[in-house]
Amino acid sequence: MHPTLALLASLGAFALIVALVTWLQRKSFLVRQLAFPLFLAAAAVAIEVYSLLVPPSAAVDQARSWILLFLGAATVLRLLGLYFFDVHLRARTGFQFPPLLPRVTMAVIYLIAAFVTLRITFPKLGLGGLIATSAVTSLVLGLALQPILSNFFAGLVISVERPFRINDWIKVGDFEGRVVSITWRTTHLRTRENDNLVIPNSKLADERVVNYYYPHPMHLERIKVGASYDAPPYRVRRALLESIAGVPGVLDKPSPEVFLPKFEDSSIGYELRIWLDDVANAPRIASEVRQRIWEVFRKERITMPYPIRTLEIAPRRRRADTGEARPDHPRPARLFVTDGVERGQSLDLNGEPVTVGRSRNCALVLSEPNASKEHLRISWEDGAWVMTDLGSSFGTRVNGRPATRAELSAFDRIGIGDAVIIFETDA
Asked: Is the pTM of this model over 0.70?
């Protein structure tokens, strides 16, 4: 047969086997792992077809011997590498290399095996000139392919240092997403919009990367909200903590916290700090928490004021107004339990004396063990609200100090054991 037709037949056999291996790679894990030896086998079949159609020459026989020797060595080395990386380390020690590192290691081993088998098959072949030529060629290719090589080596560094892993949620610059693939040139992220973001590895080496999954996927989320100056901070704090109860994805431990970072022009700024089990769900959870905050604020009559400025001009006081007369009618007031079993309960004071204690006959019933049956009485006397201890066993504290009788002012704290009651007044 004519050598040209034989060459075409051998190339056709090679292309057919390569196409078959490429198709089987999608179906079989073993074929995918042995792809390189199978491609070498395709080359060996192509040389064998050429030898059958054309009388073989010495060069063709040597090439066939080398490809068969290299095929055997590559198959054995790949099986050993497959056992070491995927069976021994993963099954026995639980350690798993990043995907890129085993590939680079096997590529270097294949290159060494190729030179060794060439030396065995062609003993008179001088490899010094080949190595020198390869070095010059590598230098030229290195200069021409500098961006690709920088991505390659950056990918090696990422594989060794492992700043992030597959399925980690990371932020790179202004973009964030879940790591779905790390190749020799790029890293692929799946964003919240379900888009595939491809980032060159060299850019990852230069950018600041935030890994939300290391050392733990638990994430702190800050939700800022403003409340009116008329709402006491302890009521706002209680409402904010109540708003996150039962929200899926919010962790109970560490416990949520409420901070008051600063006073705004038209509101008091609060910061609700909650812990999430997965940062990927942060927008959904934060949205649901804000909805709950609006509902609880409306229920507790806490307003979130608009950013406005109010100018108030105080009237000029007359000289005769040297003192302030006490009102004859009771000022609107209430009791609010901020600490204890009954925290969150409120009692309006309408002018009639009220008692506080463990007895069911009291207006405000407490489960506090240190509270007496009728612990104290609050009544309107001589133009002021007055607290009177009714001979309790463990006493009463007003603003942290023991007291048997005290005239109450706005936001005074009445302590009975571990329970704390705040006296509120609108005037």
From this structure: no
